[in-house]
Every structure is written in C-alpha cells, then in structure tokens.
C-alpha cells in the first residue's frame, strides 16, 4: 500500500508539472471560500483536499481496491481522528475554565468537508459562529 500510494502521488505530481492535469481550484478560490465560511463548497467535493485522491477510473480493479483502502485510512487517521482530538481539546479547555474567554484559531484544513472541528463541537452541544473576514471580534 505504501508503494502504491507513493507511485500514485508521484504520477499525480508529474501530471500536474507536465500540465496534463490541473488542480480544480486556485489559491484565490480557497481564500474566498474560507472568508465566506463556505469550505464545504463544490471545490471540496472529495471531502477534503488534504488527502491525496488515489481513486480513479483508469486503475485496474485490484489497484482500485488498494486505493479505496488507502483513501479510507488517510481520511480516518489524518482527518476525522485529528479533528476529534482537536475538538475534544477545545471542549476540555472550555469546561475546565468556564469563566475564561477563549479565541481558537485553526488552519483551514480543520474546516473542510465532513467531521470538522466545528462538527465535533456542535455534536457536544456548543454553538459555533463564523466570523467573516474584516469583521471585528
């Protein structure tokens, strides 16, 4: 699986470098959607851009199974579990110091797709509000 993931990643990077494939969004798109609080928009239709997408129709069936296993593992370990840990840390701080005010800042990756840090906190009963760019806190 490691060799497969490495080979697929290198093939994707070579394809990008050669210009035969393109990233479906620009940095400006990311900034715009981040500022609008809309990171789950169509540009993140693979659930998250942090996990390489190894699944494609050109793979033979046995490699497609490997790609799906790797995709599932990355998503679970690198995205969902990480956001669960981050959300629990925020919750623990809020409960430990109920009379304190907090400001938490996270990278954009914690807000993309499903099972975000915000989703974790909302499941715990917290109300989370987006602060648009330029708005005073």
From TrEMBL:
Its main location: membrane. GO terms for cellular component: plasma membrane. Divalent metal cations. Mn(2+) or Co(2+). The keyword Hydrolase applies. The keyword Membrane applies. Its cofactor is Co(2+); Mn(2+). InterPro entries: TIKI1/2-like, TraB/PrgY/GumN_fam. Keywords: Cell membrane, Glycoprotein, Hydrolase, Membrane, Metal-binding, Metalloprotease, Protease, Signal, Transmembrane, Transmembrane helix, Wnt signaling pathway. Metalloprotease that acts as a negative regulator of the Wnt signaling pathway by mediating the cleavage of the N-terminal residues of a subset of Wnt proteins. Following cleavage, Wnt proteins become oxidized and form large disulfide-bond oligomers, leading to their inactivation. Belongs to the TIKI family. This is Metalloprotease TIKI. It comes from Syrrhaptes paradoxus (Pallas's sandgrouse).
């Amino acid at each position: 699986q490691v060799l497969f993931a490495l080979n697929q990643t290198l093939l994707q990077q070579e394809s990008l470098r050669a210009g035969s494939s393109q990233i479906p969004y620009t940095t400006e798109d990311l900034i715009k959607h981040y500022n609008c609080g809309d990171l789950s928009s169509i540009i993140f239709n693979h659930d998250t851009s942090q996990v390489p997408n190894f699944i494609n129709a050109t793979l033979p069936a046995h490699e497609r199974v490997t790609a799906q296993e790797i995709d599932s593992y990355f998503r679970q370990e690198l995205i969902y579990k990480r956001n669960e840990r981050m959300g629990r840390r925020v919750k623990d701080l809020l409960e430990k110091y109920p009379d304190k005010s907090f400001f938490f800042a996270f990278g954009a990756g914690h807000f993309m797709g499903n099972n975000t840090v915000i989703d974790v906190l909302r499941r715990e009963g917290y109300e989370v509000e987006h602060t648009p760019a330029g708005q005073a806190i």
